[in-house]
Amino acid sequence: MSAPRQSPERELRRGVLEMVLLRVLLEGPTYGYNLVSEIASRSEGELEVREGTLYPLLYRLEEQGLVSTEWETPARGNPRKYYRLTAAGHSAFDERARQWRRFARRVDELIAVEADLVPDSRPDPRPDLEEGERS
Questions:
Q1: Which positions ≥6 away from 96 have C-beta within 8 Å?
Q2: Where are the beta strands (DSSP E) in 1-135?
Q3: How far apart are CA 49 and CA 42, in angstroms?
Q4: pLDDT tens digit string along 75-96?
Q5: Residue 78 has what DSSP assignment?
Q6: Phi-psi region of 134 (alpha: psi -120 to 50; beta: other; left: phi over 0)
């Protein structure tokens, strides 16, 4: 029995999350909760990242040498683990952003072409008129 299939929207989000994290980290070191808040704010809620998704991804980026970590203890409050983009992380972001722009451009072109080829399947708002009377 195969695993339940995730929605296309969810799969798209998962596919871009790594690049989005790298982009936010380009601006400087930050901690996990702030990453979640920044992504939600900048995406106007479209990309909501849960801890169960965020931290495994950050650990993977760290293992790949794209992110480094450092614990900081504020004057008040608990210590926080800050994530910082490495030089390799900067390069990885640049390359992935180029790949994304190329991919997105091709998909946009394909969608535009396909939209022109697909007949309008919307119902006619005036079904009571004869074919010749509709214009």
A1: 18, 19, 22
A2: 30-31, 67-72, 80-85
A3: 12
A4: 888 999 999 999 999 999 999 9
A5: -
A6: beta
Q: Report d(CA 12, CA 93) in Å as an integer.
A: 18
Note whether 25 and 89 are within 8 A (CB): yes
Contact call for residues 89 and 22 (beta carbons, < 8 A): yes
pTM score of the predicted model: 0.73
Non-local CB neighbours of 111 within 8 Å, separated by 6+ positions? none
Encoding tokens for residue 132? Answer: 């010749």
Q: How many CB atoms lie within 10 A of CB 118?
A: 8
What Rg value do the Cα atoms of the chain yield, rounded? Answer: 22
If we measure between CA atoms, which residue out of 84, 79, 40 comes closest to residue 61? Answer: 84
71: tokens are 């614990």
